Structures
1.
Amino acid sequence: MSNQKRTALALTAALTVAMAGSVVLMAAPAARAEVVDVNYQCETPIGPKGAVSPIDIKSVKSGSGYKLTMSFQKGVSSSPVELGKGAMNPSAVIEVGGAETGKVQVSGPANAEAIPANTPIKISDLSGTYTPKKSGKVTFTAGVLTIKALGTTTTCTPKNSPGPSLELDVAGADGSTGGSTGGSTGGGSTGTGGSGSGGGELPKTGPLDSAAALGTLGGTVLLTGAAGVLWLTRRGQRPTG
């Protein structure tokens, strides 16, 4: 095989590795989700109660924002009397941090079935909409839970400083990065919002660093390929004189 053909093959291999590394970086997840245990301490009409519930927050791109869904994997608080169908109405706050700060109000339907007395109250999925103003990484953490039933209000506050259940890499309307801004709205609609276009994908559990590490590996192989080209070129040269 001629030196020119060997050089061409080596260059082709190096370019292929470089393109593969770029594809890996482009495929890096723009969101990270994690189920977090939240220790809710509740102030009820009959005294304090508490329970730990794993909380999951998911996002789905919706227009210029994201629909957030907060899920409770275990019941919290309880009632000394049976709560009939439709008697309990839950709502909560999701704390926003990172590139911008604020709150997202989320709410859900009333209980579809009666809840027996002295039984942990299963909270339905709560949802609301977040629309970014700033660009960057934004975190979402479980905040205060409010339960209204039979004319009473129970407030449950996280006491264990839980970590974020969701992290999104978003693009705000102004295209700027960093900074903080806040705001909230009622009714489970829009929080920390204004108009804007968000970026990102559905959340995927796991660190974001793995894709970057693979991209670095692709760059290392690319350098190795370039060294091979240099070696082949030098090998093809014959001493003169």
2.
Amino acid sequence: MAGNSSRRGAVRKGGTKKGQVAGSGGKHRRGLEGRGATPPAEARTKHPAAKRAARAARADEKQGRGGRPGPGRKVLDGPETVLGRNPVVECLRAGVPATALWVAVGTESDDRLKESVQLAADAGISILEVPRTDLDRLSANGLHQGIALQVPPYRYAHPDDLLSEARKHAEPPLLVALDNITDPRNLGAVVRSVAAFGGHGVVIPERRSASVSAVAWRTSAGAAARLPIARATNLTRTLKDWASKGVQVVGLDAGGDTTLDDFDGSGPVVIVVGSEGKGLSRLVRENCDAILSIPMAGPVESLNASVAAGVVLADIARRRRSS
């Protein structure tokens, strides 16, 4: 009979309460509570990602990122891998300073692969033959086509160093600031235009902005290797600081109060380019000395950000040559 402790073989410890005991009396309540969301890998001290982040933080401290930046440029991003035959050969043609070219074992050769290997060999880039599974792990869809290129992180300048270096040239500083530009192809195209028309550098925000990735390298046609690019922790504060040092801050917008025909641009100037969709952010716009528009004859409402920057830079360069 259930619950009959006097049956043969039944054992009951002395002093115990008869019958079932419901629950744990609250003794294990904390063990039953949820522990919340799993923290990110970087926050788990024994995770490899956390160890990598700690090593990067120590390296950054040595380079002066804790306060005033150290000399030279600073590394803010990690290395990037370019996958696919067309992207790889285009990067090598553009002179992207790659560190290694990986070719999968047994990959069928074609003109693009041969050219990539030749360009890498001419540039002194390490050429490594690796198992195809190694490249499979680098590509989510496996479309690496048997070739990959490792691009090191870009070394950004500091905005203060960018302006001081620009002042060393014979002509007044000509700089470009990008606000809300998130497409790396636009970034690369702007860098190419700045280099082509005698500009001295480009500044981008650290957040909500495209970085100098392999795509930007390729679009700039190698100009990113010759033109300094700075990252600003706060773009508005950087523009205010430059304005206090005698640099005219000019924003580009279709509804500007000054047209390109009336703009001089002979003095120190920074051209601020916003995105084609959102344009200039409110704080950046409020801190511009002038808002410049490009007169257009056709019914086009606006130009692509990189095209607009190229038009303005070309006009400023023409005026400076003729003065």
3.
Amino acid sequence: MNTAAAKRTDYLSWDEYFMAVALLSAQRSKDPNTQVGACIASRENKIVGVGYNGFPIGCSDDELPWARQGDYLNTKYPYVCHAELNAVLNAISTDLRHCRIYVSLFPCNECTKVIIQSGIAEIIYLHDTYADTDQTKAAKRMIDICDHISYRPFASSRSLITLSFS
């Protein structure tokens, strides 16, 4: 008779795990309005890259603006590197073909170009906040006509994962 304890049944799925890593990565962003995180996973379910939105390395986040509105050069938009771009640039491999990218926010058209060019095969996103913008419409149009990439919303039966340092 086997008296060993049964394995846990409430463990994270792979999708939940990688999206949680993306959300945790977003917490590194210093953007006061929008914190976005990304996590790239291989077919073998290994993390190969993570990123969050922020200024390029060496560009002081005290000297560049964080504003969302105003004169273009006085907003964050010409300076911020998006989470998806950082995840691709931070990847431990140059071959991202067949990988999946988990993002807390649907990628813009510029990040979608990077994702497609890198060979990533699937985008799993948590929020599609800007679905009605031209940037998101362009991103989806590129994905829809590209034969090696797809996208889907993140789905989970849980609404919360709690982390504790104690």
